[in-house]
Amino acid sequence: MTDETDVGARAMLRQLIGHGPLTRPELGAALGLSRASTSPIVNDLMRRGLVAEISTASRGGRGRPVALLDLDDENFTVGGLEIGSDRVLACVYTLRGRRLLRNERSVEVDAANPRGLLRHAVAALHEALDMVDQGGRRLLGVGVSVGGLVDATSGTIKYAPILGWRDVALHAGVTEAFGGRAPVLLDNDANFAALAEQRQRRRDGLPAASLVYLTGTYGISAGIITGERLWRGERGLAGEFGHLIVEPDGRACVCGRRGCLDTRAGMSAIIAAGLGAATAKRRAGVEPDGVAAGVDRLVALAQSGDAGVVDALIEAGTWLGRGAALVAAMLDPRLVVLGGHYARLAPWILEPAREVFRAALLMPAPEYDQLEVSGLDAWAPVEGAALAALIAVADGVHDLP
């Protein structure tokens, strides 16, 4: 493959990742290529097992059958791994994002010990990959997600408050533990989740060129999509909205300061406030183990009509709406998406959040809601991490197979 063809192949791959399936004429037109230039590149990508003709169905059920091109779902996989304080999540996907196998493990090691937690996480990913590899698929790459300040260029965790990590060379650690099995990339959970959200919205025919995804897991980070692309900021550290100070002299935050948004609308704060206000009696000393278990308990109590929990969730929703309004005022996205566990708590927090959000905006959009709940679950950062591994191939960061 010549350098010129290589550039064309990567551009075509990127177009199909973002907008497939497409016909050959549509694919060529999107890239400004003639039919004569399009066909050799398509044929080469098909030979490599990256692109396939997936359908001969007619568009809209009328007219002659139309051959559509999309990513080949049979030959390759991409992997995603999320490292959290209470669990690690590992999943393997096809190139079109179909989940093949996922593995969840509770964290029983000391989270402050990066090496021990890393071994635990990579073992979960190896286990999932080994089962999928039996089908003969080839792994293109793996994305690794962590909540906190991540320097994706150097592969370093600058600061992860929930884990107590500072300046941890995680990319090098994962690469070593992974044994060179495939290229590895690292980013924070919000950036990866935003990529997954963007792809899902495109598939659903919804606008996706400008959005902010707020995580609802270990803290409040923002994944920012603008001009169709992920925006990381000057140093790659953009999006830590959970540590905006919204309440001077407010509650102590895990970051060492006071009054951060995380202390009111972060998931740990919501769980603590909700369970603390619960009218249902709890057995002494019995507390949920981890964020996911805490959310399970909150949902169960709220569904049972526990007034204390419902009131606490409504208050958390108002704080979340204020924070989302700050995001919208600074970045002016088409919409702000509440992801992760926020989606599970949406029946109680969404309307209070929207009410405060609308009131705080200088110029709200009258024709659509600018604050929405994600249709993805808490695995969105893992899905986005795997997607990022595929995008890295299309962008030339990793080699074409």
Strand content: 15-25%
Strands in their spatial order, largest beta sheet: 5-4-3-6-10
The low-pLDDT segments are none
CATH-scheme architecture of the largest domain: 2-Layer Sandwich
Arithmetic mean of pLDDT: 89
CATH fold description of the largest domain: Nucleotidyltransferase, domain 5
Please give the share of residues in helix: 40-55%
Kindly describe this structure.
The strands form four sheets. Strands 5-4-3-6-10 form a five-stranded mixed β-sheet, sandwiched between helices. It has a five-stranded mixed β-sheet with strand order 13-12-11-14-15, with helices on both faces. 41% of the residues lie in helices and 19% in strands. The mean pLDDT is 89. Helix 6 packs across helix 12 (380-394). Strand 11 (211-214) and strand 12 form a beta hairpin. The protein is of the alpha/beta class. The chain folds into three domains: 3-71, Winged helix-like DNA-binding domain superfamily/Winged helix DNA-binding domain (Arc Repressor Mutant, subunit A), CATH 1.10.10; 76-194 and 381-394, 2-Layer Sandwich (Nucleotidyltransferase, domain 5); 206-376, Nucleotidyltransferase, domain 5, CATH 3.30.420.40. It contains twelve helices and 15 strands. The radius of gyration is 22 Å and the shape is globular.
